[in-house]
Each structure stands twice: as C-alpha cells, then as structure tokens.
Specification:
The protein has 11 helices and 11 strands. The protein is of the alpha+beta class and about 350 residues long. Helix 1 packs across helix 3 and helix 3 packs antiparallel against helix 4.
C-alpha cells in the first residue's frame, strides 16, 4: 500500500542485521550511527508492522465470514468490529508520519517567550503563556526544563526560556511560534477598560552534538554574580555565565544563563541554547528563499504581528491563521491546548495531502 514503507522496513531489517554483526558492535562510532538510524526507523516501522498484522487478521476474519457458517460468521463479525477501527487508526497514523517533514522530527525543543508591547501586562501575559505550555506538556507526558528567565517588575516574565522533551513535541508545538495577543482588563485598570498587550513565542528544535559542531575558538565566556532573588548565594558566587559566539561579527550570538546555582550547569544550559540558535541559522542557509526563521517565528513584537488572540471577557481564543475561534479560553490556559493545536495540525495535514496528491 505504501511502497516507501516497504523500503523503510527493508532498511530497518538490514540495520538489525548490522547491529548483531560483531564487526559493527566493536566499532563504537559505527555502532552509534547504525543504532541511531535504527531507532529513528523503529518509530515508523513498528506501527507499519502492526498494520500489516491487522490486515492479515482482517482478511482471515473476512474469509470466515464468507464461509457461510452462521456461528463462525457471528464470531467473524465481532472480530472485524474490533479490528477495523484499529486498522483505520493506524492507517491515519502512518499517513501522518509519511507527511512529516524531516525538519519536524525532533523530540527536544527550546521555547523562548518574550513580553512585547504592553509593559507590565505583557510580562504577566508572558507568564500566563509559560504556565499554559507547561500544563500542556504535563498533560502530554512531556518533560519541561527551565533554562533561564528574567522576571517582570509586577510578576510574570520579561523573558523566559525552557526546554521541552517528549515524543513529537516539535510537530505539536512548532506552530505556536509568533505573536500572541491578549485583550483583558488589567488588575491596575480602574476604569474597567480592556487593554491589548503582546508576547512573542519562538519554538526552536534542539539539535544534538552531532548535528552542530561548535569551534571552541569562536566562543568567549564571562562569569558573573547572578542577579535577582537568591539570598546570600547570588551575592557571593559567580555562578551566572554569558557566552558570546563569534563576538563582533555579523553572526554574533549572545546567551546568558543564571538560574542554576551551579556554574557548570549554567554553562551546560547556555551551550544548549547556543547550539539551538546555531542550528537554526544553519537551517536558514539550507532553505534559501525562506524568510529568516527567527523573524518569521517571533515577528516584530508589535501588536499587529499576531497569530492568536486571547480575549478574556468573551472567554475566546482566535487563531488568525486558520480562522478558528474557540470559546474555551479558560480550558486552553489550563493546558487543554489541543483545542487549538488539533485544528491547526489538521489544517496542515490537509494542505500536505493536497500537495502530495498534486504531484
């Protein structure tokens, strides 16, 4: 049914043979490469093998049904009623996997949320978005790792960066990138007027050490005392770190991490963020003709650069890209993001299926 899946299955079995080959097992670098490809294919091949097994079982039940034996026919009908929905669900899952762009196949990502226009209210909203994504991640069974943050003067965040890891996280969250607009009455508003503020979100796939190699000579490090809350520790220990990558060049990247009490952990997290941003730039160069990834994701930080609006008075969430409106803002902020992410993924899937059909 899917020739490409038969090819992947053949390659998967070839890799299994290589993993059991003593010559491959004795070569650490080669074994690591083969194991990585085998693991990536397993996520595609295992559902396909299950699908083939279900197809065989359905054919067997249909043959029983055609025999004409009333008792066997009743048993076959019961079996088919259970097998066909499973088969159809797997069919859609495999089809979705075939439509996934390799650039989306990441199980680790870094999310950056920044307050835009709106002052304290924008920082508070950035905090609301952070809570929304962490709740969604917990519902999905994903792990969340705080990386760095800059608190707002009245609460929330001027900027917050965190990592998310789990099966399919990038495929689910990549369309969250852009400007998120909030319309509500701030707590400090005495006239009851609705204010509009903005926070921006960037969702960046996190590469591994193999995908991004960083020349130590291109990095400058600085250690400092961490700012903000933290008691005596932040005043006495230089645990915060700042990295400059290729300082003074057009490609300069600056990363600062201070959330951890350990300088070593802050260095590790800063390098993860740096590697992610370098990878982002590499992907831009590979995709000539596309707009700059960060700019397309983050936008300008002004009110007009919006992908979604959260209107508190009407309990409404509107996704402006697909014309979706959901009157369940409270549920969305509580982590039920599939209410808006699901329709977006369905929209993208429909477009890709149409594109595949046009080829």
């Amino acid at each position: 049914m899917w020739p490409v899946m038969d090819q992947k299955l053949a390659r998967y079995r070839e890799l299994e043979e290589q993993l059991s080959d003593p010559a491959v097992a004795g070569d650490h670098a080669r074994f690591s490469t083969v194991a990585k490809e085998h693991g990536a294919l397993a996520r595609l091949v295992k559902p396909y093998l299950e699908y083939l097994h279900l197809e065989d079982s359905i054919k067997g039940a249909e043959a029983m049904l055609a025999d004409g034996d009333p008792d066997m026919a009743a048993l076959a009908e019961e079996e088919l009623a259970a097998l066909r929905p499973k088969r159809d669900s797997l069919h859609d899952r495999i089809e979705d996997q075939l439509l996934v762009d390799p650039s989306e196949d990441f199980d680790r990502l870094i999310v950056e949320i920044r307050a835009g226009e709106g002052g304290d209210e924008a920082a508070l909203f950035a905090g609301d978005l952070y809570e929304m994504y962490t709740r969604y991640a917990r519902l999905k069974g994903w792990s969340v790792e705080p990386i760095s943050h800059s608190p707002g003067d009245a609460g929330g965040f001027k900027e917050v960066t965190f990592g998310v890891a789990g099966d399919g996280v990038y495929r689910h969250l990549r369309y969250e990138s852009g400007g998120h607009r909030v319309q509500r009455v701030p707590a400090t508003e005495t006239q009851g007027r609705i204010h509009t503020s903005l926070a921006t979100v960037a969702v960046l796939p996190e590469p591994d050490d193999v995908q991004v190699t960083i020349n130590p000579g291109d990095i400058e490090w600085e250690t400092m005392r961490a700012g903000g809350a933290g008691g005596q520790h932040v005043n006495k220990t230089e645990s915060a770190v700042r990295i400059w990558y290729r300082k003074g060049t057009p490609d300069e990247i600056e990363v600062k991490c201070q959330d951890e009490r350990s300088q070593h952990k802050n260095r590790e997290r800063a390098m993860r963020v740096l590697r992610t941003r370098i990878f982002e730039r590499q992907q831009e160069k590979l995709a000539q003709g596309r707009a700059d990834l960060r700019k397309s994701q983050v936008g300008s930080g002004e009110r007009g650069a919006k992908v979604r609006t959260y209107h508190f008075k009407e309990n409404r969430v509107t996704d402006h890209r697909i014309g979706l409106t959901v009157y369940k803002l409270d549920a969305v902020l509580a982590g039920e993001l599939d209410l808006v992410i699901g329709p977006m993924l369905a929209h993208v899937r429909k477009e890709r299926l149409a594109a595949v059909g046009a080829k």
